[in-house]
Design brief:
CATH topology of the largest domain: Rossmann fold
Oligomer: single chain
Radius of gyration: 25 Å
Low-confidence stretches: 208-227
Number of helices: 17
Number of strands: 15
Shape: globular
CATH superfamily of the largest domain: SGNH hydrolase
Structural class: alpha/beta
CATH class of the largest domain: Alpha Beta
Helix content: 40-55%
Largest sheet: 5 strands, parallel
Length: about 450
């Protein structure tokens, strides 16, 4: 038999085998009701964003399904409302007794690495409803990569509709740098607060035509546009054999990561992974600015300056938070600012795989507290309270972050919700009591 005939024979045998397996697996899938999994259906349109003249973008609206964020081999249940937020639908108050809390933030508030009911706004609402009053409702206005300028916009767009009694702005370490970069994209008022994006008209011209927009520019609804699945997804839909092979590959990847993470942690415990401390970097570069000494990926989520330098550089965040405060005062809402730590700020054990695989070393930034100090200074200028979660996580952080995801996991979000609950419950109880007396 020639090599060509042997190749053809082998190809035909493999094709027949594949067709046989496809038939068997298709019969099994039909019989078991798993011909197309909910997980596969949900991945056709997960986190696509839509353009907005004030916010630049929002998350996909009216979405419900499983989403892959960062952690390999894991998907999380996500449900967004008609405005693109992972929370309740937005309606005006129909009962004056409902106490509304708005939480503004970025991907931590949106809830990367967590199912819908595990996000900290959802947990905070449960704690308040179970321990204070059934009349409390927490609305999460968190969207990945939002920052101060967009928090100011959110209040302009939604405060009159939602009529909050309390607003919590969860300021991320990345917000300061992002605000400095973004403020130039906005038309600002006499106080330098953002008003509208300079390219608002272009954004709306390029946006899908099925927006429904009110006179303020707020996007009210948007139906999901048709999105063609990738070739990989079409193969998974069309072939039970391919889908089972893809599922098997994902299973092997998950198991390989378990071994991989265990080896990384073992190497760290044995002292084989270098550890770089904040004190080391400060002595090399000077405490005033260590930005040149740390990787760009880490710099995104870290304040590299001393307090005085940070106060000078990050005025756009303060200006935006002042705009939030002004809106809160107008609608009669109590404003709290809050800060929370990334894993390298409170522990050398958290998110080890993320650091070692990303940087080749572990950064220990526990001796740097510029972020909460900066927030203390902002809160003092705005005459509001700063809820600093750093000390809370210093003693409770064990196992609170993802392996390859520096966001909280379900345990971390529950801890942050507990911290917020402990700090606001008396104020909520007092406000509800005062409302009942009126």
């Amino acid at each position: 038999m020639t090599a060509k005939k042997a190749f053809v024979t082998l190809f035909v045998m493999l094709l027949i085998t594949a067709m046989f397996l496809e038939g068997i697996l298709r019969i099994f899938d039909i019989a078991s009701g798993a011909i197309v999994s909910q997980d596969l259906l949900s991945q056709l349109d997960t986190r696509a964003t839509v353009q907005h003249p004030f916010l630049q973008y929002t998350a996909r609206r009216s979405y419900e399904g499983y989403v892959h964020f960062i952690e390999p081999g894991k998907t999380f249940w996500v449900k967004t409302n008609a405005n693109g937020f992972r929370t309740h639908e937005f309606y005006p108050k129909t009962d004056g007794q409902e106490y509304r809390i708005l939480v503004l933030g970025d991907s931590f508030t949106y809830g990367f690495n967590a199912n819908q009911e595990e996000t900290y706004p959802a947990v905070l609402e449960r704690l308040l409803r179970e321990n204070v009053s059934k009349n409390v409702r927490v609305y999460s206005l968190g969207v990945p990569s939002y920052s101060g300028v967009r928090y100011a916009m959110l209040m302009r767009l939604y405060s009159d509709l939602l009529q909050p009694d309390m607003v919590i702005v969860a300021v991320d370490a990345s917000d300061f740098r992002e605000d400095s970069d973004r403020i130039g994209s906005y038309v600002v008022d006499e106080s330098a607060a953002p008003v509208v994006l300079k390219d608002a008209k272009e954004l709306m011209q390029d946006a899908p035509k099925n927006f429904v927009i009110d006179e303020s520019g707020a996007l009210l609804t948007k139906t999901n546009d048709d999105r063609s699945p990738s070739l990989f997804r079409r193969l998974q839909f069309g072939s039970s054999l391919f889908r089972h092979l893809a599922d098997g590959w994902e299973f092997l990847r998950r198991e390989a990561n378990v071994v991989r993470f265990a080896l990384i942690e073992r190497s760290y415990r044995k002292g084989k992974i270098p550890v770089v401390t904040y004190d080391d970097l400060a002595s090399q570069s000077g405490a005033r600015d260590i930005s040149a000494a740390i990787p760009a990926r880490l710099l995104t989520d870290f304040v590299p300056y001393d307090l005085q330098t940070a106060l000078q550089k990050y005025t756009p965040t303060l200006t935006s938070l002042r705009a939030v405060k002004t809106t809160c005062d107008r609608v009669g809402a109590t404003l709290y600012l809050s800060s929370y730590p990334y894993p390298w700020m409170v522990s050398t054990q958290e998110a080890l795989a993320y650091q070692i695989l990303g940087f080749g070393k572990v950064y220990d930034m526990r001796n740097n507290r510029v972020q909460p100090q900066l927030m203390d200074a902002f809160a003092a200028q705005l005459h509001v309270k700063h809820l600093d979660a750093f000390p809370f996580f210093e003693t409770n952080a064990n196992g609170s972050y993802g392996k390859l995801d520096p966001h909280f996991n379900a345990q971390g979000y529950a801890l942050y919700a507990k911290f917020l609950f402990e700090n606001i419950q008396e104020k909520v109880r007092k406000d509800l009591g005062a409302g009942a007396q009126r």
